[in-house]
């Protein structure tokens, strides 16, 4: 039975870049100049995300913007493209300042400016704490076009670095303003606002509209246009999403390869059917992995048992269908593997939302076989970006195939035995671990000596 049919539950979206919902409108349609459209194209940005669709035309008209959008919505592009376009029109050093709450975000933003602006020779500098101030002073002396900074360190330089000022600044971006203010950077932000020109454009982006943000908006923005994207989709800022494109018959070997490569992490592996969940769990256990299934054909007790073992870290791999995972309190996992690609794209969002929660980082890897290309394209369309391929050594995968084939044979045998046992006692229990125990006894404990590979 297809997982999506089991209990007919709707997916609860948890992470996505929101694409524009109206008909396809290109960056060019929004007024973005050709050279920047090409840069978007090179980044694989085929069409604007929703926040870009709303913010870019307004920004290009020279208006201030208050953007309600989170990391993951494409908001960096929403402010970077209009800034770069204005820079192209009136080239100037120390043109724009982006304030952001954390170092990580500062580097991410800088990467996007560099990527979008590389063909037009844009120079940007990151000014954040924890890095030697002297090298930063030297970088500032070269007068970059764009500065991406955390407020504290920038104030340091404004106060102490000789010859550095922002008196000619044309654009100020306050990114993740709610977080900036929650981190008690209010004084620093006030100091910065006092030393930059009043005659400038300001973009304020925030995930939430708190009282402090409203106050900042009143102090820093002039007659802004509000651009909001639905907050229905939560963002996952530290989720690294990958795919692997592989022949369907080698899926098991690739799975084993990845589990070895990322050993030490906790995994959640999604399969499309109860049967495949059970089979894959048996297969992995035969290879010495601590894997446990969770699916709709298990009793509630068995499901909770599986979940508790996984939570207690007694098992590092949880194999699940979409439905079994919903409505249960799944703990944080490091890596989500879409072993079977979801048939409904929104399930993808739900699945990968199992990792990178609450500011932690996480990975997701989606298996794409020759039969899944269209489904995968739909997922990329939904999340609004092209995913990178997960790096793999094919020869190493191929070296695993023999052992995997042996484990597949055992798994099939065990699955058959379980089916027969269930039919004879009309039992819905999950027998994965018992079955393995029996087989190990039959095999004289051979498995124990096996290395989990
Ligand atoms: P951000 O919300 O700005 O941190 O962006 C989140 C991710 O979406 C980044 O990896 C961007 O490269 C990507 N992105 C931004 N705009 C687009 C777009 N129009 N199409 C596809 N991906 C995009």
CATH topology of the largest domain: Rossmann fold
Architecture per CATH nomenclature, i.e. the level-2 architecture of the largest domain: 3-Layer(aba) Sandwich
Point out poorly predicted stretches.
1-22, 231-235, 427-431, 434-453
Number of strands: 13
Short note summarizing the structure:
The protein is α/β, with parallel strands linked by helices and 453 residues long. The chain is built from 20 helices and 13 strands.
Features:
disordered C terminus, Rossmann fold, 13% strand, 45% helix, 453 residues, disordered N terminus, 20 helices, alpha/beta, 6-stranded parallel sheet, binds adenosine monophosphate, 2 domains, elongated, 7-stranded parallel sheet
Notes on the structure:
- The chain has helices spanning 3-6, 34-42, 50-60, 75-89, 103-117, 133-141, 151-160, 177-182, 186-195, 211-220, 251-261, 274-286, 300-311, 322-325, 345-352, 373-383, 394-398, 401-425, 432-442, 446-449; strands spanning 65-68, 96-99, 124-127, 146-149, 171-174, 201-206, 225-228, 239-245, 267-270, 291-294, 317-320, 335-338, 362-368.
- The strands form two sheets. A seven-stranded parallel sheet has the order 3-4-2-5-6-1-7, sandwiched between helices. It has a six-stranded parallel sheet with strand order 8-13-12-9-11-10, sandwiched between helices.
- The chain folds into two domains: 14-228, 3-Layer(aba) Sandwich (Rossmann fold), CATH 3.40.50.300; 239-400, P-loop containing nucleotide triphosphate hydrolases (Rossmann fold, 3-Layer(aba) Sandwich).
- The protein is of the alpha/beta class.
- Bound molecules: adenosine monophosphate (AMP).
- It is found in: Nucleus.
- Residues 25-53 form the DEAD-box RNA helicase Q domain.
- Residues 414-453 are annotated as: Disordered.
- GO terms for molecular function: ATP binding; hydrolase activity; RNA binding; RNA helicase activity.
- A motif (Q motif) lies at residues 25-53.
């Amino acid at each position: 039975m297809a997982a999506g049919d089991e209990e007919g539950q709707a997916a609860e979206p948890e992470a996505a870049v929101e694409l524009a919902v109206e008909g396809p409108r290109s960056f060019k349609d929004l007024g973005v100049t050709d050279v920047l459209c090409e840069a978007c194209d090179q980044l694989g940005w085929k069409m604007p995300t929703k926040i870009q669709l709303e913010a870019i035309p307004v920004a290009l008209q020279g208006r201030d913007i208050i953007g309600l959008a989170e990391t993951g919505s494409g908001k960096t592009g929403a402010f970077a493209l209009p800034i770069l376009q204005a820079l192209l029109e009136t080239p100037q050093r120390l043109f724009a300042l982006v304030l952001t709450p954390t170092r990580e975000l500062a580097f991410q933003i800088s990467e996007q400016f560099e990527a979008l602006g590389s063909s037009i020779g844009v120079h940007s500098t990151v000014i954040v704490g924890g890095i030697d101030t002297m090298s930063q002073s030297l970088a500032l002396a070269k007068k970059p076009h764009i500065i991406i900074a955390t407020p504290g360190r920038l104030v340091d330089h404004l106060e102490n670095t000789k010859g550095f000022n922002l008196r000619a600044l044309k654009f100020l971006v306050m990114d993740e303003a709610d977080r900036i203010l929650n981190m008690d950077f209010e004084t620093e932000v006030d100091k910065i606002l006092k030393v930059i020109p009043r005659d400038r454009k300001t973009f304020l982006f925030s995930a939430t509209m708190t009282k402090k943000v409203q106050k900042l908006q009143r102090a820093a923005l002039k007659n802004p246009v509000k651009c909001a994207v639905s907050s229905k989709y939560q963002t996952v800022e530290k989720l690294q999403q990958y795919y692997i494109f592989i022949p369907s018959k080698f899926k098991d070997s690739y799975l084993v390869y990845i589990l070895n490569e990322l050993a030490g992490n906790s995994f959640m592996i999604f399969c499309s059917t109860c049967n495949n969940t059970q089979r894959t769990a048996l297969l992995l256990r035969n290879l010495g992995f601590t894997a446990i299934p969770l699916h709709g054909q298990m009793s509630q007790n068995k499901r909770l048992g599986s979940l508790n073992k996984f939570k207690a870290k007694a098992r590092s791999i949880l194999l699940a269908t979409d439905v079994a995972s919903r409505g249960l309190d799944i703990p944080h996992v490091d890596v989500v593997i879409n072993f079977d690609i979801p048939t409904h794209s929104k399930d993808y969002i739900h699945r990968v939302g199992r990792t990178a929660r609450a500011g932690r980082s996480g990975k997701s890897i989606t298996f794409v076989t020759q039969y899944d290309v269209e489904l995968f394209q739909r997922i990329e369309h939904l999340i609004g970006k092209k995913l990178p391929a997960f790096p793999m050594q094919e020869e190493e995968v191929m070296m695993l195939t023999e052992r995997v084939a042996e484990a597949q044979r055992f798994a099939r045998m065990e699955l058959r035995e379980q089916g027969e046992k269930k039919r004879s006692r009309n039992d819905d229990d999950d027998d994965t671990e018992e079955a393995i125990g029996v087989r190990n006894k039959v095999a004289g404990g051979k498995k124990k000596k096996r290395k989990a590979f």
